[in-house]
Amino acid sequence: MKFPVYSLRTGILAQLTFLIIAAMLLINVVMVKFAERDLTQEKLHTGRLLVRAVEQNLGPLVAGKNKKLTEEDLNFEFRKGVGRMLADSGFSDILIINQEGNKVFTTEYSTEPEEHGLVSARETLSTGIWSHRFSGTAWSVLWLSKSDVRISAPLSLESRLLGAITVSGSLLPIYQTLRSSQTFILFYILMDTVILVLVGYVLLSRIVVKPIDKLLTMTGAYKNGSMVPALPESSKNEIGDLTRSLSHMLKRLDENKRELQSHISSLERANRDLRQAQDEIIRSEKLASVGRLAAGIAHEIGNPIGIILGYLELLSSGDISEADKQDFLNRIESEITRVNRIIRQLLDFSRPSSGKPEKTPVHDLVKMTVAMLEPQPMMEGVRTTLELNAQKDTVLADPNQLQQVVLNIIMNAADALAKGKGQEGIKQLKIRSEKIEGSIELRFSDNGPGILDKELLRIFDPFYTTKEPGKGTGLGLSVCYRIVEGQGGTIRAESKPGEGATIIVSLPLYEGQNQRGEG
């Protein structure tokens, strides 16, 4: 069985191992502490028994004597017996004093421990109470503990106080015993850990991991709106509740997905219809512009045709020289070329838009549109000034739609100038271009009566117009707004009543171009 580094099984195994080892070590620490305490108490109990044994061996030596205990009273047999008792009890030193506090017997104490033992014996002699003291420090197993113990007790015989005794011993053998047992304890801890980890891993895998694997199988198989077969009835615990909740959630997701797909299809149809309606509005507004241009173009075409008819009448008379005949033919050709150019401009503008963006020089488009409108009656008396200063003017846009924007703005400016002119006394329309960061900005400024503040906020709304009924659809600037926004640009208006109006169109420049500067 594989154990990925970040799998749930690996996490359970690692954490379970850590917890069990930590618990075992903590239990071991507690057990060592209790064992140390019990062995120390056993050492004290042995010391008390040693004191009683010395007292019993001392009894026959002083029985019947009503004098103080002296060193001569302690014969060789007593000393030999005390040595054997010390060897059997695990204590190393004994010090005995008489009732006057003088030392009468001692083993080979070093100077400092003997002084401490003597002080303890005299304190016990004065109080008549058993006592024990710990001294020194040494490592037990995992911490520092006391290294030596002294037990002091009064010596008496038949209610007669003979003196006091102090027995001393080392606690290091206890610690050595505990440290020796740790090897076996750690081995058993390791064995118990392995067994508990394996058992815990099997149980947790059965209770947690396998149900989660089933949940992952269910969620992984849920795709394309198809549900996986229902899982067998799960347990009544939290995992079972989660399984049932997940099953219900996937069913709800499947239902919601079907509803969402239905809504998306409906929105796509509505979007297609809306786009078609917008294209129809643009085309209708374009046809309306063509209709407005038609009267002026008919007038503009009528003049050349009248000239042509006059020259044809002169040619038909037959009494003209060859030089005059050639001159008349050249003039007729010029007028026909003029008519052809006018018709071509109108046809180019009125043809259906492809809707595909292409590299379009803005300056050329503005110049062409102005040239097409200048002969129109609506532009009569309007002085048009071009200040095309942008060094780069190529944008990625539909040229037909962009020309429609320029045409509508200029025609609106002409309509505004027809209502009144500025303080200069002449009608002026200034078209200026500037490069601002990565965009080209076109400003169409007239010196007409301007736009009221309340109207300025609504001029781009569909069907909003300030013109008289029958003279405007209210779609011109709205269509311009839609086209410019669709090309990734912006359009806005600035005006002060009585000081004219400015329509500002900003379009992103075509990246990667290598344009020459244009004035």
Task: Write a brief structural summary.
By secondary structure, this protein is an alpha+beta fold. The chain contains ten helices and twelve strands. The protein has helices at 8-62, 76-89, 111-127, 172-221, 238-317, 322-350, 362-373, 399-419, 453-456, 476-486, and strands at residues 93-98, 103-106, 131-139, 144-157, 160-170, 358-361, 382-388, 394-397, 427-436, 439-446, 490-495, 501-508.
What does this structure look like?
This protein is an alpha+beta fold and 519 residues long. It folds into three domains: 8-193, 2-Layer Sandwich (Beta-Lactamase); 225-352; 354-519, Heat Shock Protein 90. Helices cover 56% and strands 18% of the residues. It has ten helices and twelve strands. The strands form three sheets. A five-stranded antiparallel beta sheet has the order 2-1-5-4-3, sandwiched between helices. It has a five-stranded mixed beta sheet with strand order 7-9-10-12-11. Strands 6-8 form a two-stranded antiparallel ribbon. A hairpin with a 4-residue loop joins strand 1 (93-98) and strand 2. The radius of gyration is 58 Å and the shape is rod-shaped. The relative contact order is 0.06. The model is unreliable at 513-519 (pLDDT under 50).
